[in-house]
Specification:
Blueprint: E1 5-9, H1 35-48, E2 54-59, H2 67-81, E3 85-91, H3 98-106, E4 109-114, H4 119-125, H5 136-144, E5 152-158, H6 166-176, E6 180-185, H7 193-215, H8 225-237, E7 248-251, E8 256-258, E9 275-278, E10 282-283, H9 285-301, H10 313-322, H11 326-351, H12 355-363
Parallel strand pairs: 1-2, 1-7, 2-3, 3-4, 4-5, 5-6
Antiparallel strand pairs: 7-8, 8-9, 9-10
Helix pairs in contact: 1-2, 7-11, 8-11, 10-11
The structure holds iron/sulfur cluster.
Iron/sulfur cluster (SF4) binds at residues 14, 16-18, 21, 23, 25, 60-62, 92, 114.
């Protein structure tokens, strides 16, 4: 099957400097995609899509830093892709406004604000690039407080030093009225065993919490990460190595396609070996396959790769280009990913027969 997702990294600039940022922002001169390259890439992607599902995600740096460019490409993609194309974006929220939300809704761009929780958790890792003392949390809250949340999502990253507050942070966003709440552990973070146990306990707490919401017929929220967890677990059960076959097309800020987004953690120009074509030439599919074959080999020779819930190849690509030893990074990745996936699969096993759960996660369109 061909690609179904285009991930566009609009620039390498951000007004924040989050400690765990997985793209290289504000390192070297600012680089922005041109509207012409963006349009060509959208056209190319839409030509290559074979199946019914197609999605474009706008990322950064901060995607709203160049708001006119964002508007132009969102309008273009919507017009070219029609109503069946899912558009989404992840923003840090510091540049959000009621007028921008009206525009995003008008183009049906599913918008997710990255926030790690209440002030203490959020501001621990999410800080301004040029003013570390100023609270990002306070600014984002000031901007989104009065906005309708029924079509807005929030995405939390938790680390070993914010995991203790995970469930209460989810509860905080639920009570703010967010419809989509998603979360991820920082998978490159080295988690002490004690903190992995806290993650297990917090995820058990999440299962109880979500169960209560369903049982009491309260407004549920959509946990976006569950879709891929459920899909990948289903494929694992069927004996499929789903992660061998990446459906993402990644466009970097300099107009180059990458085999995977993880090497974007290196400054522009430092991961040229990962370039697999560009907006003008299109994708070099054979080169891309070559990268995957190498990563698959590395992973499977070491006994990993069976029942993966998250694609492990990015760790290899990043480590290789960064000149690091992939093996300890991969071992850590597997340890953290397994605890996270097991916790969410327990939630699924416990709740999957509930009709509301079925409606949201089995019958609904995935965004
Ligand atoms: S807001 Fe996003 S892009 Fe900007 S530094 Fe933080 S994680 Fe990176």
């Amino acid at each position: 099957m061909g690609p179904d997702h285009l991930a566009v990294y609009l620039s390498n600039s951000c007004n924040l400097a989050c400690s765990y940022c997985y793209v290289s922002v504000n390192q070297g001169p600012p680089v922005h995609l041109s509207l012409a390259a963006l349009k060509r890439s959208v056209d190319y992607f839409l030509e290559k899509v074979e199946g019914p599902s197609k999605k474009i995600t706008f990322l950064g740096g901060e995607p709203f830093l160049n708001w006119p460019l964002f508007q132009d490409i969102a309008r273009y993609a919507r017009a070219r892709g029609g109503p069946g194309l899912v558009l989404q974006t992840f923003t840090n929220g510091t540049l959000m406004s009621p007028e921008r939300l009206v525009f995003l809704d008008s183009q049906e761009v599913h918008t997710t604000i990255s926030l790690d929780g209440r002030k203490a958790a959020n501001d621990k890792h999410r800080v301004y690039f040029k003013n570390k003392e100023r609270s990002v949390f306070d600014d984002v809250m000031g901007r989104i407080k009065g906005l309708p949340k029924d079509n807005l999502g929030v995405s939390l990253v938790f680390t070993h030093d914010t995991i203790d507050e995970f469930l209460s942070n989810v509860d905080y966003f639920y009570k703010m009225g967010f419809w989509r709440i998603t979360f991820n552990p920082e998978l490159y973070d080295v988690w002490p065993e004690r903190k992995l146990s806290v993650m297990r306990a917090q995820l058990k707490g999440l299962t109880r919490y979500y169960k209560l919401i369903l049982e009491k017929n309260l407004r549920p929220f959509q946990i976006q990460i569950l879709y891929s967890i459920m899909e990948n677990a289903g494929k694992n059960k069927a004996g499929l190595k789903w992660w061998h076959d990446c459906h993402n097309v990644v466009l970097g800020p300099e107009g180059q396609f990458y085999a995977c987004d993880k090497p974007l953690a290196l400054p522009i120009g430092k991961a040229e070996a990962q370039h697999v074509g560009n907006a003008d030439t299109g994708m070099d599919w054979a080169k891309r396959e070559g990268h995957y074959a190498e990563a698959i080999d590395f992973i499977e020779q070491r006994g990993w790769g069976k029942d993966e819930t998250f694609c492990p190849m990015g760790v290899y690509f990043y480590a290789k280009e960064a000149g690091k030893d992939p093996e300890p990074m991969m071992a850590n990745f597997h340890k953290v990913a397994e605890v996270f996936a097991d916790g969410l699969l327990e939630l699924v096993a416990e709740l999957e027969s509930h009709p509301v759960f079925q409606d949201i996660y089995v019958n609904a369109r995935v965004v």
